[in-house]
Structures are given as C-alpha cells and as structure tokens.
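INFO  loader      accepted 1 record
INFO  loader      residues=138
INFO  predictor   begin
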Amino acid sequence: MEVTIQDKSNYLKGLLITAKKDNQLTETEKKIIRGVAVKLGFATDFYEDSLKTLLANKYLLDDPIKFSNIKIAESFVQDALKLIFADKMFSDVEINWLRITAQANSISDEWFEEKLKKVKGTSHITLNANDFALYSII
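INFO  predictor   done
INFO  writer      dumping tokens
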C-alpha cells in the first residue's frame, strides 16, 4: 500500500501526541516511536530532537489526526493503543484523544472498542517489528 509523505508525517506526529498526552515519556515509549520513525524513513536527528523536546513542545497541537485512507488510520489506532499500554501506565486522556482521532477517520466506535479491549487485555506488549500494524501496510 502506498503511504504518502503526509500520512507518514501524521503517523509519527500522532504517536508523539499520544505519548505526550499523559505528560510523561518513558523509555518504552521512546523505543516504540524510534522503531516506527525508522520504518517511516525519518532521519535520526529529526525524531531524536522531537523526543528530546516533546514534553516541552507547546507547538505540537493535539487536534485529531486525519489520514488519507481508513486502513492507514486503523493501523495508526492499533499502534497508538500499543504505545498507550506499553508502559503499563495509561490515562483516559490518551484513550479519549485516540477515540476522537478514530472517529475523525470514520472508524466505528465498535471497531475501536474491540481493539481497545484486546490491547487492554494483553498482559504484555512486545516490541518486535512484526507486532506493529504499520509494518503490515508498508
């Protein structure tokens, strides 16, 4: 599937917003974001600077992310849910932002709730490349 530069940018931006929503950035979250950023083709200095300044970045607006294709949006939602639960610390703020983003991309509430329940019920999130939905669409 062709993923546009805009979608790649939105994917990374969305993960950064998701990580920022609870006002903390763990090593696990950084590892996930780095892995996705590499897969999307971003330069190391770009995503490392983004991670370094993330919590203080007042210019990273948290408007819902809109993708050009529902499959990319679904992939993003699944990966963002993994990011939210990877550090075992999650907040309703993170989940609600992601729910609004899903709705902005015409993803049904039922689909979202099913994916949320599945990830919530997972006892541990692995960080293997094949475990991220993005890798199946690029």
